[in-house]
Design brief:
The chain is 78% helix and 0% strand. The radius of gyration is 28 Å and the shape is rod-shaped. The mean pLDDT is 87. It has 261 residues and is mainly alpha-helical. The chain has one domain (2-251). It is built from nine helices and no strands.
Length: 261
Amino acid sequence: MAQTAAGTIIIILACISGAIFALAILRYYWAPSFRTAHNDVIGPNVGVIGTTYAVLIAFMLSGVWNNLQAARLNAEQEANNLVNIFRFAYQLPRESQSPVQDLTRKYCESMIAEEWPAMARQEQSANAHKLVQQLWRSLTSVNPRNSSEQTVMDHSLSELTSMTEHRRIRLLQSRQRLPALLWAVLIVGGIITVGSTCLFGVENFKLHIVQVFELSFLLSLMLVAIASINRPYQGDVHVTPDAFHYALDTMNEGPPAPLGQ
C-alpha cells in the first residue's frame, strides 16, 4: 500500500513538473507579450478542448466506478448463494448434510485466504476450483427420500448454478481494464488540454504557474483515480472479501432455531 501511494504521488508530481517545465520553455522561446494578441483566439479554443476533455474524463470515471460497483455486487451475490446452499443443506438427508456444509465452509475460507490474493495477481485459486467441482459432485449425488427433500435439492442446485456463474463473472472482472487505446486518448487529451492553457499570454509568470499547476494537478489526480478504480480486484480501491467474511460468520452461527423457540 505504501509503495502504491508513493508511486501515485510520484506520478502526480511528475505531471505537474512536466507541465510547469513546458510553460517555462514556451515562455523562454515565445514571450507572453507576443502571445497576448492571440488570447481572443486561444480562449475559445481552450474552452472547447477543456469541455470535451471534461466530458471524456467524466465518462471514463463513471464507467470504471460502475464496473467496480458491479464487481462488488457480483461478489456479494456469490456469497449469498453460498450461504443459501449451506442453509438448504440442513434439509437434505443426514448423510449428505455434513459433506455439503463442509465444502461450502471450505470454499468460503478459500475465497478469503487464497482466491482474493490470487486475483490481485490476476490469477485464481486452484483449490477453490476443486472445491466447486466437489460441491457439484456432492449435491448431484444426493438421493432425496421424499418430495420435500427433492425440492430442497432442486433449490440447492439452482443456487449452486448461480454461484458458479457469479464466480466465473468475478474471475473475468478481475482481469478487465481500460484498453490501451482509451488510455492513449486520456493521456494525449490531458497533454493537449494543459498545453493549450500554456499558450495564453500572461505577463505575470507566477499567476500563470498557479493556473497551470491547478489544472495539471486536477487532471493527473483524476487519471490516477481512474487507474486505481479501473482494476476491481487490484490497486488502492478494490473489492474486498467482506461478503465472504460475513457469509462465514453466518455459517458459524449454527442451525436455525426451531419454530416457537
